[in-house]
TrEMBL record:
Protein name: ABC transporter domain-containing protein
Span of the signal peptide: none
Keywords of this entry: ATP-binding, Nucleotide-binding, Transport
SUPFAM superfamilies listed in its UniProt record: P-loop containing nucleoside triphosphate hydrolases
């Protein structure tokens, strides 16, 4: 089966779930994504209707290209549209216009670690999403072990999930997505609720999971500039628009220069 798909602006809205979940099979049309790109969108827009019936633009003319097998970050000030763009890439929202291609299957991991894990033990939680594939028990065990190993959580196999830290829960959620052989991981501000240790643990887990699943791509929404050191590339947004995309150090320089000029303005 072809694991790539095109999501056109007319695709049906998909119901968000409260755990990492695969959104691979419910798109309006299917085509091959260029092998070297995991995500490609052009001139994407998204608007919502206000109570007065007016269209309120949230995203305008957004274009990004993210290569397969890389760890990318999506940055920008509060309210610039990062989560909205990520939800569109995950098939959770429909764009109002433009063109979007995302490799499948794709998985969305949400911000709140307590919304990520639903089963009593780590092992059961990672196996949970595999129920739909009708796999032999051996295959389920092997996928669960490999996925937990990739995020450094194998030794927690039998642990009750309520005993895990926030970051460990996030890593289990990521393992769930890897076990389902997802090609694109969409990660929405996973470190917002985490302390520094857990923050670094989750970042390293994403890095090592990409290394152990060649071709898998991650897009990570964050506010934290220091996280860019883990990224291969980044997209910077402002006010509903993609301002710049490129290698992580160029984006870091750009954002720091902008912040510097903003501080100068305040102080002048
Ligand atoms: N359904 C909606 N109705 C009205 N406004 C919306 C809706 N969804 C998003 N917005 C607005 O669109 C803008 C972008 O929201 P979004 O959550 O995508 O931003 P963000 O960059 O992820 O923000 P943050 O960094 O604070 O999480 C915000 O101003 C938000 O209030």
């Amino acid at each position: 089966m072809n694991s790539s798909a095109v999501v056109h602006a007319t695709a049906a809205v998909q119901r968000p779930l409260l755990r990492s979940h695969s959104t691979g099979n419910n798109c309006a049309a299917v085509a091959t994504v260029a092998d070297n790109l995991a995500i490609e969108c052009r001139n994407l827009s998204y608007s919502v209707k206000t109570r007065q019936g007016r269209l309120l633009p949230i995203l305008n003319d957004c274009s990004i290209s993210i290569p397969s097998g890389q760890f990318w970050m999506l940055l920008g000030p509060n309210g610039c549209g990062k989560s909205t763009l990520l939800k569109i890439l995950g098939g959770l929202l429909n764009p109002s216009g433009g063109y979007l291609r995302v490799k499948k299957p794709r998985s969305f991991v949400f911000q709140n670690p307590d919304h990520q894990v639903v089963m009593p033990t780590v092992e059961a939680d990672v196996a949970f999403g595999l129920g739909k594939f009708n796999l032999a028990n051996d295959e389920i065990t092997s996928r669960v072990v490999k996925a937990l190993d990739a995020v450094g959580m194998y030794e927690y196999l039998q642990r009750p999930v309520q005993t895990l830290s926030g970051g460990q829960k996030q890593r289990v959620a990521i393992a769930g997505a890897l076990a389902e052989a997802c090609k694109v991981l969409l990660l929405d501000e996973l470190t917002s609720f985490l302390d520094e240790n857990d923050q670094v643990g989750v970042l390293r887990a994403v890095k090592s999971s990409l290394a152990s699943s060649p071709g898998t791509t991650a897009l990570w929404v964050t506010h934290r500039l220091e996280e860019l050191e883990y990224a291969d590339g980044a997209v910077y947004m402002e006010d509903g628009k993609v301002v710049l995309q490129g290698d992580a150090s160029s984006i870091l320089n750009f954002v720091e220069a902008q912040q510097g000029s903003y501080i100068k303005q305040i102080n002048s």
